[in-house]
Amino acid sequence: MVPPIEEGVVRVIPLGGVEEIGKNMTLVEYKDTIIVVDAGFQFKEENTPGIDFILPNTKYLEENRHKVKAIVITHGHLDHIGAIPYIMDKIGNPPLYSRNLTTLMIRKRQEEFPHLQPLNIKVVEKDDRIVVGDMALKFFAVTHTIPDSMGVMVETPYGNIVHTGDMKLDHEEGNPSEMEQVEFGKVEKENNLMLIADSTNVERPGFSIPERRVHDNITEILKKTEGRIIIAAFSSLIERLIHIINVSESLGKKIVIDGRSMKNNIEIAREAGMLNPKRDTIIPIENMDDYPPDRIVVLATGAQGDEFASLMRAANKTHKYLKISKRDTVVLSSSIVPGNERNVQKLKDNLSRQGARLIHYQVSDVHSSGHANREEAAWIHKKVGARFFMPAHGYHYMLRVHADIALSVGTPEANVVIPDNGMVLEIYDEGRKIRVRPESAPHNLVLVDGFSVGDLQEVVLRDRQLLAQDGIFVIIASIDTTTGRVRKSPDIISRGFVYLRDSQEMLRTARGIAKKTIEDNTLGVKAINFDYVKDKVTDAVSRYLFQETAKRPIVLPVILGI
Rounded to 5 degrees, what are φ and ψ at 327? Predict the structure, then answer.
């Protein structure tokens, strides 16, 4: 258990986002005030089968909910806003600070949770300063793949905790733009105690591809490509989607938007005043064939090969309206998320079989990451000039690389802390020293599984993993409770284990083992202990199946007393 904070100490705890990509959440605590930065979720992984989402563990915040005075949301991506519906009630529904587009995206998502009490959202802008309890908040604009992204400075008596959120630099051939110079110039003038910065792409050398170059390349594709153009991208790349719509409209093309998340985010962009197409520019997909293919641009979800997304259904010939032809050019305007390589390859293969021409990020600059490369990170460190540094938003190796960047620009090694989720960092001695407490805040997984939210028991996940790996083997037997004998040969049902028709001899032996094991423990017994008998059958049959197949299916005996 983490002890109460001491007088004069500033405490920083990452509750998520420093051992993974996703579920970003960090808190800053001083006296009786806690300020939380971001509240995202993470999608399921191989070791969490059947799970919908993974949330930051907020038990520390729940135990100190009277101190939680604000949540700051840096931008509208789900790895920064996704946990909001699941945690706000638990931590006292504190005021939530975000910029306009981010606010609209949060409100749109809350519509899926009508049973929750309304959020207390306060829209802020860069250069605003807001006093929150024993600290204050100031904001600055950053460049990311979604408009209205921002960093936050949490003012403490000893200096600012500067949190960049997710970001990159707008630049020209490695020279940061005037906007970046102005925004980080403001941060540079501050008394900065600690920098917490995005580490996602710091392994990559140099500078990232500017979004401007992606826009220019997509513009050329829209101008010069004959036939219909289908562009698949993350629906969260709102700035890029807006550019595609505006350029297409200027070329006299009609836009078709397909995919629920794509439609939602385009509508949010319109509400935010960032997009204002003519009334007939965006047309329903069912009207697409009323126009020549040269005049059609389709914005679709599914660049990651998602099974039910728009583009994958078209590739699999199951889409009601979108039929791929040899005159189609498909632009995959996204990189491949690790783990999706096979799905994306299948998508590309199926599109190619139907004759479509493919353009993707490996052959043309049609996608740019929203995260800073190594030299961008180094420039940010120099500009901010903070005494201490904690890398965030990435796997441990990414954080380690980012720490090396901090050291290379002059941050003392003693002032750099590479965190784990739940690690308690404390700045003390009037901001001159930093330490890591031996205690940790709770950081075990919090899982969303259907309508259930919480700590899913480890045994449940283990069973799901076994089911996925080796399948299930069900034995159904009925016994005469007066004699203890099995009334007929047990029935067997198996899924995901072996092909039953090719395994008849093994099944006969398994039935015999089950029958013998049952009767060894029931013959002559007046009060049969069914749970004990089931355990014995499970052990005996499991042992035999492993000897025969080297697999360990979940063995479930069903024993009926008649």
Answer: -90, 0
